[in-house]
Amino acid sequence: MSAAPDGPRRPATRVQEAALKRIGALLVCALLAAALPGRAQAQTVRIGYWSSGISLGFGAVLEAGQFMEKQGLTPEYVKFPDVNAPTKAMAAGAIDFAIAASAGTSLSVTANGLPLSIVLATQVADLDFVVPEDSPIRTMADLKGKKIGTSPAGSGTAAIAAAILEGNHGLKPADYQAVPGNDSRLAQFLVQKDIDAAALRTVTLALLPDVKMRRLGTFREEWKRLTRQDAPPVLGVGLMRKAWMAQNPDGPAKVVAAMRKAFEYGKADKPGVAKILMASANLNATDAAAYAALWDGIYTVSLEPADIASLKREFEVFKAVGAVQGSLPEGALVPGPYEQSKAIP
Predict the structure, then answer these.
(1) How many domains does the chain have?
(2) Which of 4, 16, 46, 225 fits a disulfide with 95 by CB distance 3.0 to 4.6 angstroms?
(3) What family does this belong to (predicted)?
(4) Which of 227, 258, 288 is the last residue in one of the domains?
């Protein structure tokens, strides 16, 4: 016996309508929940910096002041024990932005075609060539055949020092022995007479008032002589991953705005900087104050036309001494985020 044909459908009851609405609402919530993680991730920026040298001071202030958070970003800070590590991590896609990548290495990797962009000049090479006070070495030319301490090969400091020694004083790498190390270690080597001279940051010298040293020359004056320009050498740059920039069109300007505000804070509130350094860098009050006092001279957050010209000149100087190779692409220096950041209150 065949089944009876279906009759006309009954209208949905109020209970059924309410249930359907609840199901619809749940589906909307589920879709939003699925979308939110991706949206939050788009505003996350992984920031790396060297946990020593002058990178530490700016990084500590940037973190403590929550300047990235104030721009609506979710930062994930990664500290590295090696000066060249942030650039390597950037090349491997492990971080999105390095607040002070070595200028020499950054110029090199962009020339080699890695998908990275220089969006800021962030550190000035404020260093001195020094010797122990009782050293017989009197001039830069006397460094021939000597042991000279500097940052590890690949760092901006090492590249600038090599360019100065060769360009101004005719000392090629084979004419002296470069001894790599961080500033505190190099200062110790000097005291122990294990090396003859060193290129040390003014911050380091300010933190070692009891160590008697004599200055042979400064990076600023030597660079001015080498380049015949007034702009000081750029030691560190803000390096950003192109993929992150493409995925977050408004993100780069926010990052730069946060950097600018952190820089301005440091210029305006030296006691505040010192307090942060005491808490995060384990400095005593005297050392923290000495470090903070140098803020204006060691940091910068800029990519004006003059900065771009200076970095291009720096590339040519590095190339002349073999520190970099190839040609610097037009897209290596990207001022857009810096210019856009000026409109962010």
Answers:
(1) 2
(2) 46
(3) Belongs to the bacterial solute-binding protein SsuA/TauA family.
(4) 227
